[in-house]
Design brief:
Helices cover 37% and strands 27% of the residues. The protein is an alpha/beta fold.
């Protein structure tokens, strides 16, 4: 069964800004699906439509066969959503944030504590349940927010840039908990990211999106295979053929390489089809001609190579810590929870 079905979806904002341009895709139930793309690619606009926060300009979308435009309330009962911006209240404890969410989701009073304790355990926050969220690390805040979105046990969880602004250690902890929700709770997860490593580690299928359009959708491994070529970087002793180095190497290696480029006096890079398979042949050919090989590195195609192939540009990552700093200073008037 499809958890999500999208057909010819478009979103145009004022000023004729086309954030989404006729995208179509399906997401199977039980998988982790990711939109990989730069800021402004249309990732957040797509999520906001799917979680019924923004109206679609054109096209249709269904969540577990429910039309998001015709039955938005029914859709909201089946989904959880963690936005890119911070939603947890820093002036409350982790427990109080979860209790507030439980009330908003109208979870029966007799079930609240059990569900909250269960979420705290799954998210690794039990020991800090009574600490103010303002004292949490960025990763802890994100795990708490994911826990809030899972309190009503949704079938589908939307995560918009779930690890933006986190350090590598915090990012990996969030990844572990996302994977746990998917495997143990069988939760279908739709996430957006501009981190290559995040998409590759978490996602069963990835949609590469840029300028409001989807370039390709496939598994991480299939996307890398579609690139076709890898690279072999070698440091060679070409003392007898220094003047004709590139011409000599091209003639010697022939059909085994796609192209050869000089990186420095002794360092060369060969673009190769199926680099891991062809590397031993290339090495043996060099040694047979008494060419000294001082170093050799084989690199298979990467997800970044796939992104470059299908969009014609590289994806720049990076995120600010400002949103986490903002949490420290944020205070809200809150009526005591009982």
């Amino acid at each position: 069964m499809h958890a999500i079905e999208v057909r010819n979806l478009s979103k145009i904002y004022k000023g004729n800004i086309r954030a989404i341009d006729g995208v179509s895709f399906d997401v199977d139930e039980g998988i982790i699906f990711g939109f990989l793309g730069p800021n402004g690619a249309g990732k957040t606009s797509t999520i906001k439509i799917l979680v019924t926060l923004t109206k679609v300009t054109d096209g249709t979308a269904r969540i577990f066969n429910v039309d998001i435009a015709k039955e938005p309330s029914k859709v909201r009962e089946m989904i959880g959503y963690v936005p890119q911006d911070i939603s947890a209240d820093g002036s409350l404890t982790g427990y109080e944030n979860l209790l507030l969410s439980a009330k908003l989701y109208d979870i029966p009073r007799k079930e609240r504590n059990e569900r909250i304790e269960n979420i705290l355990e799954i998210m690794g926050l039990t020991q800090r349940a009574k600490s103010l969220v303002a004292t949490y690390s960025g990763g802890m805040v994100r795990r708490l927010e994911i826990g809030q979105a899972m309190l009503h046990r949704p079938r589908l969880l939307f995560l918009d840039e779930p690890t933006i602004g986190l350090d590598p250690a915090g990012r990996k902890l969030v990844w572990e908990h996302i994977q746990r929700l998917n495997k143990e709770w069988k939760t279908t997860i739709f996430l957006t990211t501009h981190y290559m490593e995040e998409a590759e580690i978490l996602c069963d299928r990835i949609g590469i999106i840029d300028q409001g359009r989807i370039s390709v959708i496939d598994s991480p491994e299939a996307l890398k295979k579609k690139v076709g070529v890898g690279s072999i970087t070698v440091v060679l002793d070409l003392s007898e053929h220094r003047e004709e180095g590139q011409k000599y190497l091209t003639a010697l290696l022939g059909e085994m390489v796609v192209s050869i480029s000089s990186l420095s006096h002794e360092k060369w890079q060969f673009t190769v089809q199926n680099a891991p398979h062809n590397a031993p042949r290339i090495l043996q050919t060099l040694l047979d001609r008494n060419i000294g090989v001082k170093d050799l590195e084989v690199k298979s195609p990467t997800l970044e190579d796939a992104f470059l192939k299908f969009t014609g540009k590289r994806l720049d990552g990076g995120a600010s810590q400002n949103q986490w700093k903002a949490l420290k200073g944020r205070r809200r008037t809150f009526k005591r929870l009982t």
